[in-house]
């Protein structure tokens, strides 16, 4: 099984990423680390425990990571995700405890204990936790096999400012550190996540699966879709975060291109912009693979098939 650490800020779409990873027979989920992002850490951490418990994976430890970005104050998105971040599910008090160890120290210890180039990372929130871990312990980079990230926008316009996608905008300094870490990176930005729009048909198929996880997915996508449907004049909303894990499990769904990707940290106007050198005009060597296309129907068939296993 492939060892993986999941770092996220649930978020309805983070929740689907977690569900996809937590029942994947291919993956050995070493731990889930919460970040402050869509909603504050006090909430994302509880959300992670609810979702891991719902997935029947109380064996997977959940950690709280960083409360907010390295430099900037935390900017949250209750206006998209609702007060809880995962509005649309039936809430319960999780019995799964939060681990005492800080999420950043967990990442450091777990990577240090691993063999070289063995652990995969999935990051679907601001990249604060891994950036902090790399700052504290630069030696861990060599343990990472690859990093699958949801973040950025290139051909597609930003979703929080004209230039920037939310996860990178919130902590551009962290994104800058991670993008320069020298390990293989696959990045799923709005160019591709805006091609996986949900619809009432998708929500209906999830609901019809009948399990608590599946009905929660349907409820969350229904909620999430309302905000985005209005915004994008579509039938639903973009299902950003599960693109990362779907690619890990079924890479053929996506098209990626090696590119040099730089993060804007200085400008007020374009803070968090991802300068994706899609046409190689800078001549700089690629530091990541940029996802630019996806087979939408096959993506949703795969997602629904996997959620159907709950
Ligand atoms: C990203 O920001 C959050 O709103 C979502 O969970 C996703 O990770 C999309 O810009
Ligand atoms: Ca997210």
UniProtKB/TrEMBL annotation:
Keywords annotated in UniProt: Glycosidase, Hydrolase
Keyword Transit peptide: no
GO CC terms: cytosol
Record InterPro entries: Inosine/uridine_hydrolase_dom (IPR001910), IUNH (IPR023186), Ribo_hydro-like (IPR036452)
Gene3D superfamilies, per the entry: Ribonucleoside hydrolase-like
A Pfam family this chain is assigned to: IU_nuc_hydro
CDD domains linked to this entry: nuc_hydro_IU_UC_XIUA (cd02651)
Example GO biological process: purine nucleoside catabolic process
Residue ranges occupied by any Inosine/uridine-preferring nucleoside hydrolase domain in the UniProt entry: 4-301
Record-level Gene Ontology MF annotations: purine nucleosidase activity
Stated name of the protein: Purine nucleosidase
């Amino acid at each position: 099984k492939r060892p993986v650490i999941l770092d996220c800020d649930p978020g309805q779409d983070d929740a689907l990423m977690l569900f996809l990873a937590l029942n994947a027979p291919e993956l050995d989920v070493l731990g889930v680390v919460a970040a402050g992002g869509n909603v504050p850490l006090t909430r994302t951490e509880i959300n992670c425990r609810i979702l891991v418990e719902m997935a029947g994976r109380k064996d997977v430890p959940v950690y709280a990571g960083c409360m907010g970005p390295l430099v900037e104050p935390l900017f949250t998105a209750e206006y998209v995700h609702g007060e809880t971040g995962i509005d649309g599910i039936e809430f319960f008090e999780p019995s799964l405890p939060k681990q005492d160890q800080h999420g950043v120290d967990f990442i450091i210890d777990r990577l240090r204990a691993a063999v070289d180039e063995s652990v995969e990372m999935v990051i679907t929130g601001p990249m604060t936790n891994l950036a902090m871990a790399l700052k504290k312990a630069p030696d861990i980079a060599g343990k990472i096999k690859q990093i699958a990230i949801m973040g950025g926008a290139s051909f597609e316009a930003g979703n929080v400012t004209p230039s920037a996608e939310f996860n990178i905008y919130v902590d551009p300094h962290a994104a800058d550190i991670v993008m320069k870490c020298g390990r293989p990176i696959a990045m799923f930005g709005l160019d591709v996540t805006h091609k996986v729009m949900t619809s009432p048909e998708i929500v209906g198929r999830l609901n019809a699966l009948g399990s608590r996880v599946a009905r929660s997915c349907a409820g969350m996508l229904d909620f999430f879709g309302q905000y985005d449907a209005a915004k994008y004049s579509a039938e639903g909303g973009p299902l950003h975060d599960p693109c990362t894990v779907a690619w890990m499990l079924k890479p053929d769904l996506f098209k990626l291109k090696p590119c040099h990707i730089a993060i804007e940290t200085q400008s007020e106007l374009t803070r968090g912009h991802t300068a994706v050198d899609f046409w190689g005009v800078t001549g700089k060597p690629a530091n990541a693979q940029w996802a630019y296309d996806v087979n939408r129907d096959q993506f949703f068939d795969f997602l629904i098939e996997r959620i159907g296993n709950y």
